[in-house]
Protein: Glycosyltransferase RgtA/B/C/D-like domain-containing protein
Amino acid sequence: MHPTIWRDESFTMALVSHNYGDIIRLDSMDVHPPFYYITLKFFLSITTFWTNSLFTQVIFARLFSYILAVLTFLVLSKTVRNLGVPGANAIQWAGFFLAPSIMRYSTQIRMYALAALLLALVLNQLQHYDNSQKIGHIFLAVFFASLASYTHYFAAVAAGWMLFIYFFKFQLNRYDGNAILRGIVVFLVMFIPWGIVAISQIKQVASSYWIPAVNMDSIINNFINLFSDVFTGNGGQFYAIILIVMLIYSVIWAYLNMSNKFKSTLTIVLLIYILTTLTGIVISVAVRPIYIARYSYPIYAILMFFMMTIIAQMMRKPLSRMANLFSTSVVAVMMTIILGINVGFLGTNQFNNYVLNSSNLADAVEQYKENPNNVIHLNPSQSPNTIIEKVVYIKSINKRVQIKNFNVARILGKDNQKLFYQLFDNVDKSPSK
Structure:
């Protein structure tokens, strides 16, 4: 929990400083749907109404993501209990929250934690329908899927695949297939109000965006980056491969030792992760690169929870098919080492890049307050993260910013002057060279 913010988080904090109508209007010029920003603004309005300090608001915004991550864990714990597996034990807690990428996105001021919770709720309601065949669970599943689609477009893709796969599952089980089929139609219809805006956003991305072209390396990274976290550098793939091998072993153990209901749901979760990633890759090849690994975080979070549930069950049943005391101990030691490396790396990364800079940021903001000028001139040679972080904090003390010869594409990934100067409305337009 630190007050320093990187570029995308600065975008978030700038956007939620506007009113609800402007949030929707400004967000329509960007590439994401607006539900996360609206919920975050509401959360901050009831938790930080007593202060104008952006430092405090940033901490509460991070707390919001963490609360969502905890709720995701609790929803998934209830889901696996419905599958006949104990949930919410210490191994699951530690394994889930210390897993690669979970630690990062559980406190990041972006929409990924909310999208993961909504997708977990979709899975939970579909599983309830599988157990009871009560139509109300289909209604709730479609409702949460629709909210997910208004949170992130690839959460919508994952939710769509989930509804589609469960439709076939229910058909095989001879349930009322029309119920979920109607639900899928309602899911698509509920997205229509934002659909026109989404098409406009897609056109913007097609013309200009920062995501690089698809090649073999990017395809591999799209599958494994979340398993190695996003800043593991040259050793990331090796680290991810070791973790994936451990998880494959765990999956095989689960298919040999766990209940049919759990195995069926695990298969669906694995399929959704693979299909969501493949959908992003196919669209990126056929239209334009629009997909990076973190866009699959919502279904990845669910997948990691299931993996940690399996490992927790392995520890409870060391003597089982494809396992003994020795192999179970090896799994426990290896997972501890892997998670320990992730914690150490991410902790070091966060400390060096954010925590250490917190005092510098506080000093800079204090200097800006004491500056008698109402317009603060920022050096354009600073990093994009530093520039836009300062812009947001300067706005919080009611001062304006001028950045000479500034290229807004460094912040937005595209040269959208209209969005930039309306979003960061305390920045004066860059003077001509």
